[in-house]
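Follow-up to my earlier ticket, as requested here are the two runs.
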Amino acid sequence: MPLATTGELVTRAAQVRSAVAAFNVITLEHIEAVIAGAESAGTPVVLQVSENAVKFRYGRLLPLARAAVAAAEGAAVPVALHLDHVQSDDLLRQAAGAGFGSVMYDAARLPYAENLAATRAAADWAHAQGLWIEAELGQVGGKDGRRPLDAHAPGARTDPDQARDFVARTGVDALAVAIGSVHAMTTRTAALDHGLLKRLSAALTVPLVLHGSSGVPDDGLVAAVTGGIAKVNVGTALNIAMTRAIRDFLAAHPEAVDSRKYLSVGREAMIQEVVRIIGVLGGAPG
């Protein structure tokens, strides 16, 4: 079917107090696993390509993007394509011609005034191209191996009043909020600040996004969706599932050299994780 857009999927989810799962993909196996899992669950899904994934692919966006578009167009459920955590303006400007319907522009590392100005410029460009745009305020942390900010450090959490000002002045379509999750966690021990989420949800009219969701326990994810999160980003959980399955397979079959053997095992493990996470999000009361 034709590509869906992140905007339509997230807006629809927000209207019924549910959330769409958005999975970061690095390889073709990731793409296939996310779509197969979404088809098994019978739900729409978002495929996300991050700036770091593009760097891994020698800085070339199109090979992975075109594979994602082709796979999405052959899917039995609506699939959207999202360019995630973009800091490079050059990469941002490749989005529209590569099949993406949305971008997440990440200037959260900058002081507030600079973040606001850079995001306003990115939003103006994105909207002129017909793209839905997400931004981040506060710092989720944990990207590129950096330590997350202390929970009480300035800028570590998203301030509701500042968030209201930021959304109004930038014109972004959704906001990723820092409420206690951390990128790249390999343990599911993140404790979300649900009181802060309630205040953010009351302060803002745009959909809210949770990054670093792999480190959040299931009950925390359910509570986040109930509290107003409409898009849940997942990446590390798929990599954990894939790596564990491949490691176990190679330990049991040290003679194996055909990459299809262990990649298929890794892909299947990711499919099961996609189905599991979608099931968790679907368990939130609407």
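Run two:
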Amino acid sequence: MEKMRAIVCTKYGPPEVLKIKEVEKPAPKGDEVLIKIYATAVTASDIFIRGSQIPIQFWIPMRIMIGLTKPRKSIIGLVLAGKIESVGKNIKRFKPGDQVYGLTGFGLGAYAEYKCMKETDSMQGCLSLKPTNITFEESTSAAYGGLLALQYMERGNIQRGQKVLIYGASGTSGTIAIQYAKYLGAEVTGICSTSNVDLVKSLGADFVIDYTIKDSINLIEQYDFILDAVGKIKTSKLKEACKKALTLNGKYVSIDDGKLILDSKRLDLIKELVETGHIKPVIDRTYSLEQIVEAHEYVGKGHKKGGVAITICK
């Protein structure tokens, strides 16, 4: 029986509940591929699952899905990038050696050296060929931030010349959203803290509002589309003001307005946008598998820029 290393989470709690263990290496079924994971990421979703710090409006459905008293899946982790090691007999989209990236959905399991996934989209995950011009670590940010940004920005039907505001412009989805809005031809304003102003400008934002400035509310204009890229759990007077700063037909959307759709077609589009230079995913820090506790502590503070990656295989 072959073994692999994985981060195991057998109970809810602080980052220290995460432990490296040797577990059984999975084998693909006929409709699955076996992925050797080169990188994963520590996302806000991972923090919520590990600590059971689920927003009250999602508590009951999420606990039913992830486990009532402890994680139903002891190996958590939502995002992966790696190589196909082997495929089941019914697989058509992938072949051994393909470099892939995607999300594991409620299947979780990305905090490990190997993961089996189906090639078809479902709540158990979505998978696509990764962009060829970025690292496995950067691909984790592109997958998670890209799927969030594109799904919710598509609701705005953004047109060239319109004004777009990204609240939380320096996060994983916010950094992608700025670049996608610029790709669509919008005039983009990003909201972030002082330390992230230069980053947001470098991503193409036409204007940046520093929310730490006392009179930042007075800098808000009217926008055709506003994306709340930090989610409803974080509130402020500035965010409340943003909700009212809409043009007549303007739209305000939050990244937690409904469930994330796991869509390999969107991953294909993200791949194209990355490879053509329209989007460059941002990685704040990269940790080793042995530093998973430190990585969770850092992300839990809520001040990361872009994504935080975990290198599993080199």
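The only thing I checked on run two: Helices lie at 44-51, 59-66, 136-153, 172-183, 197-202, 237-243, 264-275, 292-300. Let me know what else you need.
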